[in-house]
Design a protein that fits this description.
The chain is mostly helical. Helix content is 75%, strand content 0%. The chain contains 15 helices and no strands. It starts with a helix and ends with a helix.
């Protein structure tokens, strides 16, 4: 059961790893804020339709947690995606994606601050080892390589903190379906992005895309909306409910690895230190999952996290609608 639960965050991170090169190519025609807003405007409509079909109007009720939902939507959806797209203007996709590998460590620290839950030494150590692997890729074996990120790196640090808070927040909505949590937070984040884009357009910081611009990036938008925003985020929140935020966050180490594979397929040639760092990151993730599975086998069933009651509803919308 635990292995099947791992498929959810795995699907999400592989989708996001491909997303960075896809978004980078779209930024040649559409400004970062407008691209992010267009992406999640479409995604929010799809999520809203799925939620209404699955849970009806009752699924839109926040249950007195509207402020918390709004904050998580702004910090997670808007913060992470806006900062990521802005960062892609300052660094290559494979470089930006590396910062995502710090998510496991940051998520554990957020959980420590918010809930007072001290990170398990083994998971914390393995997260740091994975981070070391990322460092090898970033620096290519030389500390001088740390200076190449600049503003883009600072933006990604903020993006990762925002996503860690959002991931931790998902675990606090265990009574909600992943579809409901994803949709309501996405709606809040999208409204914020609409406001931010409008201000940026009016101030002249960016320019609203024309119809021709949107048509030109339609393939990228289709992937970013359907795969990376709808399916991947639903799968991610399902994985958080099943595995817990700290354990699910470990899979984020695969995002930069996936991005590197895509970039290599497009002609990028990594050096030996980059390959060694990627291998170290993967090995750390595998070890962390083995540690987690060993701990779960030793935990009484009554103390384990509850499983999602209807996984079909979040990974196969077609099957869900058919029912």
């Amino acid at each position: 059961m635990r292995s099947r639960a791992a498929a959810f965050p795995l699907l999400a991170v592989l989708s996001w790893g491909v997303m960075f090169p896809v978004l980078a190519s779209a930024l040649t025609r559409v400004d970062p804020l407008n691209l992010t807003t267009a992406r999640y405007l479409f995604a929010a409509v799809i999520l809203l339709a799925l939620l209404l079909l699955r849970e009806g109007v009752a699924g839109l009720r926040s249950g007195g947690r509207g402020v918390e939902v709004a904050v998580l939507g702004v910090v997670g959806f808007a913060g992470f995606n806006l900062l990521t797209n802005l960062a892609l203007e300052h660094a290559a996709p494979q470089q930006i994606s590396l910062f995502v590998a710090t998510t496991p460590l940051v998520t554990q620290l957020v959980r420590w601050v918010r809930d007072g839950v001290r990170p398990r030494p083994a998971l914390l150590a393995l997260s740091l080892v994975a981070l070391l692997g990322v460092g090898l890729v970033i620096t290519r074996g030389s500390l001088a390589g740390l200076g190449q990120f600049g503003l883009g790196g600072l933006m990604m640090i903020g993006a990762v903190v925002g996503w860690a808070i959002y991931t931790h927040g998902a675990g606090r909505f265990g009574a909600w379906s992943p579809l409901r949590y994803t949709t309501l937070t996405a709606l809040a984040g999208t409204l914020f992005m609409l406001a931010a884009s409008a201000v940026a357009d009016l101030a002249g910081w960016q320019h609203a895309p024309t119809g021709a611009d949107l048509v030109a990036v339609a393939p990228q938008l289709a992937y970013a909306v359907i795969v990376a925003a709808v399916i991947a985020v639903l799968a991610w929140n399902t994985g958080v409910q099943r595995l817990g935020s700290a354990n699910a966050a470990l899979f984020m180490n695969l995002v930069p690895v996936t991005t590197f594979v895509v970039q290599i397929a497009r002609g990028y040639r990594p050096g030996p230190f980059e390959l060694a760092g990627a291998a170290l990151t993967i090995a750390s993730l595998v070890a962390a999952n083995l540690v987690t599975r060993a701990r779960v086998r030793a935990t009484p069933p009554a103390d384990r996290p509850a499983a999602v009651s209807d996984p079909v509803a979040v990974v196969d919308p077609v099957a869900m609608v058919a029912r």
